Amino acid sequence: MKNKSIFRAFTRMGNLAIVNFSKGTKLKNKKNFARKILEENLSVKTILEKSGKFKGRLRKQTTKHLLGEKTKEVLYKENGCVFRFNIDSTYFSPRLSNERREIADAIRNSEEVFVMFAGVAPFSVVIAKTSEAKKVYSNELNREANKYGRLNAELNKLKNKIEFLDGDLKKVAENLKRKRKKFSAIVMPRPQLKDSFLKEAFSLSKKGTRIYYYDFCRLEDKDKIIDKIKSEAKKAKKKIRILKTKIAGEIAPYKIRFRVDFRVL
């Protein structure tokens, strides 16, 4: 049996490899393929089988241990940073590595940055470590992700440069608004949610604030995302200028992750 008939996708993430097998694949064939991965990749210690898609606002997935060390904790490196996280209880996308670097490169000297939907803090850590930002504020709802986010700040020696604001974004934004806190840059790597949370972003913006907004749509519907941003800006009584649009990855046939960079005027 050829490998391509056994699995659909194989992702290597630090010390783990995750295989998405075709339906009906026999356990013997799964373990044979897993053994081959271990033999050909000495830094990979654990093989997991993906058994479910990312679900819910916390973006959790389900995997099953197949071969190697029995762990679901990842040690992953990118952009000169190191990250630890649990593959099932937290969300992390290595495909966004270039996005994190690109946005970090756009952050200017002494700016304060707010990262929404921060997860285990990859955007927060990369920005804090590789840019000249004065301080990065990191918000995430998932308690397990917040635990790893703090660990990742420590691992990268950034405890004094990242402030964690745990909990529901709407409540966190309201608290910041009461304190009259505004940010020079706001990063929004949103999961697939109905709410855009642009209302919260605009409430924490000032003249010149740059917002990096992620959404999901069909390839032909990119203009609808831009129209939504303009509509939300109008509701918030903010004038904006679109700086850049970018397809930041394909997540399904003809469905994309779409990034829109814009400035508050």
Please explain how this structure is put together.
This protein is of the alpha/beta class and 265 residues long. It has two domains: 3-71, 2-Layer Sandwich (GMP Synthetase, Chain A, domain 3), CATH 3.30.300; 90-264, 3-Layer(aba) Sandwich (Rossmann fold), CATH 3.40.50. It has seven helices and 13 strands. The strands form three sheets. The protein has a seven-stranded mixed β-sheet with strand order 9-8-7-10-11-13-12, sandwiched between helices. β3 (46-55) and β4 form a beta hairpin. α2 (97-106) packs across α3 (122-130). The longest helix is centred in the first third of the chain and has 14 residues, at 27-40. The protein is globular, with a radius of gyration of 20 Å. The model has no long low-confidence stretch (mean pLDDT 91).
Keywords:
single chain, 265 residues, GMP Synthetase, Chain A, domain 3, Rossmann fold, 7-stranded mixed β-sheet, 4-stranded mixed β-sheet, 7 helices
